[in-house]
Amino acid sequence: MIRVLLADDQPLIRSGFRALLDLEDDIEVVAEAADGRQAVALAEERLPDVALIDIQMPVMDGIEATRRIASDPALTGVHVVMLTNYGMDEYVFEALRAGAAGFLVKDIVPEDLLHAVRVAARGDALLAPSITRKLIHRYVAQPLPAAGAALAELTGREREAVALAAQGLSNDQIADRMVISPMTAKTHINRAMTKLHARDRAQLVVLAYESGLVTPRNG
Description:
Layout: E1 2-7, H1 11-21, E2 27-33, H2 36-46, E3 50-54, H3 62-71, E4 79-84, H4 89-98, E5 102-105, H5 110-121, H6 129-139, H7 145-150, H8 156-166, H9 171-178, H10 182-196, H11 201-210
Parallel strand pairs: 1-2, 1-3, 3-4, 4-5
Helix pairs in contact: 2-3, 3-4, 4-6, 8-10, 8-11, 9-10, 10-11
Organism: Streptomyces qaidamensis
Domain HTH luxR-type: 147-212
Keywords: DNA-binding, Phosphoprotein, Transcription, Transcription regulation
């Protein structure tokens, strides 16, 4: 059973999402929060698998709430997905830096919401390649030396796998491109995450762009 926390200051949004999620046999909404501080407290109390958190909320915004959840060793199993509106790109990349596994727009169709919750629960990133490239182009114009130095810890094959992951490829697609098995591709990604201290695949993507391993021009 996938345990979900909903955090949004609009009761109508929460009730709509809850009604949809509760219809699924494998998903259960275990808590609702009206602000970021409450979201953090409920994440600590209920330990959800997925936290759907609105970016703009009173008391504490969703980005700070995400940062606190992502930095808490006791909450490593909580995968945060940010809820946003169109035209808020400047917040989205900041949310990824804070530790979010991805983001969804609030007018998402029901089927895509359910798919996103299941993807996030598996620990995969919710990053549409076209949107990610746009965000990276705007907010990571210059590679960061520290991020580049961290990549020195990776083997050549791990770097190749990370670069492909940063382009939005799944493990199966990475395996096809590298002519290896999906399990080997997953192993490369997991080892890279461990070496780079990336919380999840989304942070791995951020590091790939910040280090210059992938750029907006070739990504």
